[in-house]
Amino acid sequence: MEEDDVAASHLKSLECPVCLEVRAGLKMFQCANGHVVCGACVGGIRICPACRVKMPESSPIRCLVAEADIERLLAGRCAHREAGCAFKAAARDQLERHSAACSYRPLTCPRIGCGATIAAESLVGHLTSKHFQPVTDATGVYYTEDKMQAGSIKGYMDHETTD
Ligand SMILES: [Zn+2]
Ligand SMILES: [Zn+2]
Ligand SMILES: [Zn+2]
Ligand SMILES: [Zn+2]
After folding, report:
1. C-alpha span between 92 and 88 (Å, rounded)
2. Could you tell me the pTM of the whole model?
3. Which pick of 7, 18, 101, 136 has the fewest CB atoms within 10 Å?
4. Cα 44 to averaged position of ligand 1 atoms, centre (Å)
């Protein structure tokens, strides 16, 4: 197996069975049989979703190994990993540059009154399907309503950042 496959299957084994996510920066907990549950979900369950053993009621069992593994495995990974981004950086400044331009970064729809949060790569699709009708004529493709040009949508996306 490639190193990346090992990391991917290890990450999969650290996935919380309640929210189905692996998130950095959360405390991790485990049942008496060692199945992990994330800190965001542990308060809401009485039995382990994997083996149905009763979870300890007053003090859930912390799982430091899982926390450390998650931090290590997610190091250098794009924050928009869950949205589908597979980017992995070798250096920290590389990750920051990527995040600002990541095609999976969430953007707020620029249409007044909409305000939906859309992954950057889906924004043009959202704008055209929800707000504008594309029309093709001799001058190229433009969008009805205020004739927003395809280029100006692209311009918005190139300049928008999420911070
Ligand atoms: Zn969870
Ligand atoms: Zn269990
Ligand atoms: Zn990314
Ligand atoms: Zn919208």
Report:
1. 10
2. 0.60
3. 136
4. 10
Strand segments (E) across 32-91: 36-38, 61-62
The full set of domains in the chain, from first to last, is 3-75 (3.30.40.10)
Rounded to the nearest angstrom, the distance between the alpha carbon of 102 and the centre of ligand 4 is 20
**95 neighbors 131 (Cβ within 8 angstroms):** no
Listed in sequence order, the residues at least 6 apart from 82 whose beta carbon sits closer than 8 Å to its beta carbon are 21, 23
Tell me the ligand closest to 49's alpha carbon: 2
Count the residues in the chain. 163
Q: Which bound ligand lies closest to the C-alpha atom of 42?
A: 1
**pLDDT, tens only, 17-67:** 999 989 888 999 999 999 999 999 999 999 999 999 999 878 889 999 999
Q: Which residues lie at CB < 5 A from ion ligand 2?
A: 31, 33, 35, 48, 50-51
Give the ligand with the smallest distance to the CA of 66: 1
Tell me the torsion sign for CA atoms 123, 129, 133, 134.
Answer: positive
